[in-house]
Amino acid sequence: MDNRLKDIQQGTLTESRLNSDFLFWLKTKGPNYLLVAMLVLCGFMGLNWWENRVMQARDSAWSEFLSAQTPLELIEVANKNAGTDSISQLATLNAADAYMMSLQMNKRFDREAGAADAALTPDMRVEYLAEAARLYAKVASEGSTTIGPASLLTVSALFGQAAVAETKNDPTQAGLLLTQAKELAAKTYPHLATVADNRKQSLPELTKVRDMPPRPVDQNTSMDASASTQNVLMPVNATTDATNSAPMPIRVTPIETAPVSTPSTEPAAPASPK
After folding, report:
1. Which of 214, 238, 218 has its CA nearest to residue 229?
2. pTM, 2 dp
């Protein structure tokens, strides 16, 4: 009986000592461990918040890029989202393409199709071409120059720069740019390399393009529309004299054909009565 009471008392003292040690640990080291746990939890929650914010910012940037219509809006999107994916390069490239499209269609991007001032003026054509060249050069300088998928934007920018050179009637510069595009796209995008090679081979055709000279107005020419001896002015595709900047025209006179005389038919004599 005494041994049992001793065991109970010993157990009670052990539990009391453990409780005292635990309380002492909570008082001395417990707050430190609790602070570390709270910091880890806060860090985990902050990381999740940051990831959600970055994802929302990326979604917003792509939405702005897809909704942009004019070159000015695309340039604003490019400047605003410089570090988000490839939105900056894509927006800049699309802005340059929009300027070139306006030049091809001879239509301002900030006017309706039926507006009286929708056509481009000569000063606007120069401005649009210069802006397109600047934007293409920016994408080409900032893009990847190594073989791989990241070089697609650079190849597209080189194609755009070649188009600007072709518009300026500079086949030499266009050929150099197309050669760069072909070499960069040879392994990753062989189809684009073929397109670049085909465009380079067609560059000599630029030298054959000549403006149609205006038809001269002869004040002494008769206004009779039935006259068939009018001279027709046509351009020559052959190489012109080096001293002349404009193509030499030739006059082609249509061959006059004699009018076909219609044989006259005499009325038949009346039959004599029997």
Report:
1. 218
2. 0.62
C-alpha to C-alpha distance for 64 and 57, rounded to whole angstroms? 11
- In this structure, which amino acid lies at residue 256? E
SS3 state at 250: strand
Integer Cα distance of 204 and 144 in angstroms: 30
Q: 203: Cβ–Cβ under 8 A, 6 or more apart, which residues?
A: 166, 171, 174, 175, 178
> Pick from 203, 208, 204: which is nearest to 247 by CA?
208
Q: Are 208 and 239 in contact (CB under 8 A)?
A: no
CB environment 101-138: b (16+ within 10 A), e (fewer) = ebbeeebbbeeeeeeeeeebeeeeeeebbebbbebbbb
C-alpha 17/C-alpha 9 separation (Å) is: 12
Which pLDDT tens digits describe the chain residue by residue (274 residues)? 556 655 555 556 566 666 676 677 767 777 777 788 888 989 989 898 888 888 888 899 899 999 998 999 999 999 998 888 889 999 999 999 999 999 999 988 888 877 888 898 999 999 999 999 999 999 999 877 777 777 899 999 999 999 999 999 899 999 999 999 999 998 889 999 999 999 999 888 776 655 444 544 444 444 443 343 333 333 333 333 333 333 333 333 343 444 444 444 444 444 444 3
Q: State both tokens at 69.
A: 């219509």
Which residues 6+ apart lie within 8 Å of 132 measured at CB? 96, 97, 99, 100, 103, 160, 164
Q: Which residues contact 70 (CB under 8 A, 6 or more apart)?
A: 98, 109, 110
